[in-house]
């Protein structure tokens, strides 16, 4: 038999490692970390105020210490308030918006089930791709960039495709569209479908009432209106969503995002003790809690109103400069991220580069289907102020004066 | 046909929402965030020194700004050095160790393929569960808690099960075992199998040479020896691993963890431009870079030696108190996390609770298969010092004096 020969061969392999190990070295690494201050007026991340940065620099303690559970409980209350929901299944995923998107889809959908996504920008495409990867059957309804869907169109698709899940982006940050939500949840429920809403770009900046609007799964990110660093993603599940999730035939593909584990870690499952699932990013929980405290102090309605007023002031300023807004219909303009038709005759990339270089200010071009068509300006959370609008307008005027304009 | 009726019905649903919205309110939220200082001598997270906390509090800028790409490039070099690898496919996953574990398994394994995991604690079980969820066929080799595997046993299993992937935990933090690695990579390659190593608890605290030891996929976490907050997980893939990954028939189940996307975001794929994948947790990248700078400054060999010396000093101190080490074989004792046989006649929970209350110091009980059998003490990174050993020994002596001992 072979074992003894193999043992010898394995011992021979060991020898050179033990006797003749060469350590790889590293050079040029010790330059101190240096990060510039910058006006973050793109579609996110937005600026993080010192108060929230400082919260994140609190000492790291254990991810299952009672103080962390209390912080998680505060986060839960804050998210319930921000989402306008009483769902007990409310928590924050240890990841960014994409992680929350996968968490929503992985938990609600089983292989072979039908999923419908509304594609009027990049997010519906990504949701469709995620669902496809886990073996769902995908159908989409498609609107041109800048457009959105009527409830009639949505109902026709629900009736035709009979999906178990319908995905819609409330704030389509790639095109600047704020999608109307009223009535859609009720339509979904009529067809026994769960209503999943991405509010990464809109949450806290535009009215949304999770419970009253019949939203079954809602998530957002920490790095937009909340002004926290990227890395956590609030999410909430309705009773109806939980019914489906906790009666699955198959396990979700991800252990890390399995809601039954997350629910236990976040104290949402009513069980007396919490079992170790993963090591929560406690520093990110500190800053998320602080960012929710800021929102609570202002009041979510006030925050919605402020974003709306600042956006209208911005839009008027743009139009008075002769620039055109990409989203035609006023009520469908996202108050957090404004899309401007890329100025005729200019190279959009030259404009954003000029503004970054000259004004230390980020605005960005399009994303996905809107690349080349728009400039995007995000004024979110603490960045949403008339003073910042004036700063952006001045930077844009300056750029249009100095950047190269073709003679066409 | 139905559309007009539906429109009316949808309009009726809209009305009450618009006219009669009740805003949910929030109370008792405005208490300021408060986090205690605490000696983090459990199996992790460990203490984060001010230098690293301060790095993480730098201003947030864009996840695709050139400064961030430079920081990511520094992280890549630092991880290559720490892992002792020249793999260009080296990066950090935006998540904790579990995310990296899923990243490794999701990318390398396709449904129906055989996976072999070595189970001598909790990590092999979790890896098996993850692989099972994506439709792999699972085989395990099992050793009792505190035990490990010989190369002969491993080769027998490779030969019998012919897996595409073999999972092994280098540092089994639930049982305190440091698994020998020499020769195993070569055995895996003999059987055309990829060698996946979890070094979350061991990396930086015990010798490991990714390239020379033939490890194909290696990952760790930020919150152990590196002393950064939890939330990022360095990972590296060999050329051999990439060969399999980039010739898959099916897409990995996760878009967020798809290596072809991550490789592009981290500049590992040689393509001239980077496409938006997800919003990297830039603050966590700052602190990860700083923690790697600390390791580079000391030198990884020096760090290995220090952890070994401190562990031996600790183990001698424990034995002189009459306590027993859980791992019998000296060379298989993890220098970062020490497992102590739960003192006879005591309730282990009373001991850890007493030490936390009286000494503001975390040590922990067992995890998974070691629950009730051990106490676990982690001295990792900056926490690995003789002064801290003395502090833990004094706390343990005090606890054994004051906690209730049964008369049996």
The secondary-structure element order of chain A is HEHHEHEHEHEEEHEEEHHHHEHEEEH
Approximate strand percentage of chain A: 5-15%
Structural class of chain A: alpha/beta
Q: How many domains make up the coordinates of chain A? A: 2
The overall average pLDDT of chain A, rounded, is: 93
> Total strand count of chain A, please?
14
| Strand arrangement across the biggest beta sheet of chain A | 2-10-9-8-5-3-4
Per DSSP, the total helix count of chain A is 13
* Spatial gap, N to C terminus of chain A: 83 Å
Concise account of the structure shown:
Two copies of one chain form a homodimer. With 408 residues, chain A is an alpha/beta fold. Chain A is 40% helix and 13% strand.
How would you characterize the overall build of this protein?
The structure is a homodimer of 408-residue chains. Chain A is built from 13 helices and 14 strands. With 408 residues, chain A is an alpha/beta fold. Chain A has two domains: 248 residues, Type I PLP-dependent aspartate aminotransferase-like (Major domain) (Aspartate Aminotransferase, domain 2, 3-Layer(aba) Sandwich); 103 residues, Alpha-Beta Complex (Aspartate Aminotransferase, domain 1). A seven-stranded mixed sheet of chain A has the order 2-10-9-8-5-3-4, with helices on both faces. The longest helix of chain A has 21 residues. The N terminus of chain A is likely disordered. Chains A and B meet through helix 1, helix 2, helix 3, helix 4 and helix 5 of A and helix 1, helix 2, helix 3, helix 4 and helix 5 of B. Chains A, B: Homodimer. Chains A, B: Keywords: Aminotransferase, Pyridoxal phosphate, Transferase. Chains A, B: It holds the Pfam family Aminotran_5. Chains A, B: InterPro entries: Aminotrans_V_dom, Aminotrans_V_PyrdxlP_BS, PyrdxlP-dep_Trfase, PyrdxlP-dep_Trfase_major, PyrdxlP-dep_Trfase_small, SP_NH2Trfase/AEP_transaminase.
């Amino acid at each position: 038999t072979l074992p003894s020969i193999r043992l010898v061969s394995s011992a021979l392999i060991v020898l050179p490692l033990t006797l003749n190990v060469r350590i790889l070295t590293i050079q040029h690494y010790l330059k101190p970390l240096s990060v510039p201050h910058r006006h973050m007026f793109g579609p996110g991340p937005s600026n993080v105020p010192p108060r929230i940065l400082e919260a994140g620099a609190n000492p790291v303690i254990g991810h299952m210490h009672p103080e962390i559970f209390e912080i998680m409980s505060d986060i839960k209350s804050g998210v319930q308030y921000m989402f306008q929901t009483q769902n007990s299944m409310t928590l924050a995923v240890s990841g960014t918006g994409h992680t929350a998107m996968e968490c929503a889809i992985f938990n609600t959908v089983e292989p072979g089930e039908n999923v419908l996504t509304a594609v009027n920008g990049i997010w519906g495409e990504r949701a469709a791709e995620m669902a496809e990867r886990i073996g769902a059957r995908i159908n989409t309804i498609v609107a041109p960039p800048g457009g959105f869907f009527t409830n009639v169109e949505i109902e026709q698709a629900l009736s035709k495709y009979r999906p178990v899940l319908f995905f819609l982006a409330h704030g389509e940050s790639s095109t600047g569209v704020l999608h109307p939500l009223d009535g859609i949840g009720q339509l979904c429920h009529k067809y026994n479908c769960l209503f999943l809403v991405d509010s990464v770009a809109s949450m806290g900046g535009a009215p949304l009432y999770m419970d009253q609007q019949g939203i079954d799964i809602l998530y957002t990110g920490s790095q937009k209106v909340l002004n926290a660093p990227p890395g956590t993603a609030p999410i909430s599940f309705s009773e109806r969503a939980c019914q489906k999730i906790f009666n699955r035939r198959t396990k979700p593909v991800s252990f890390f995002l399995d809601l039954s584990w997350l629910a236990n870690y976040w104290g949402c499952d009513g069980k007396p003790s919490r079992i170790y699932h993963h090591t929560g990013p406690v520093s990110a929980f500190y800053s998320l809690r602080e960012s929710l405290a800021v929102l609570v102090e202002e009041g979510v309605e006030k925050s919605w109103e402020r974003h709306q007023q600042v956006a209208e002031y911005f839009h008027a300023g743009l139009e008075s400069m002769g620039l055109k807004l990409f989203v035609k219909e006023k009520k469908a303009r996202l108050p957090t991220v404004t899309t401007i038709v890329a100025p005729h005759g200019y190279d959009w990339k030259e404009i954003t580069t000029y503004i970054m270089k000259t004004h230390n200010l980020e605005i960005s071009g399009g994303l996905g289907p809107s690349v080349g068509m728009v400039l995007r300006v995000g004024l979110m959370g603490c960045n949403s102020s008339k003073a910042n609008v004036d700063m952006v307008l001045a930077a844009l005027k300056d750029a249009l004066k100095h950047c190269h304009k073709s003679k066409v």
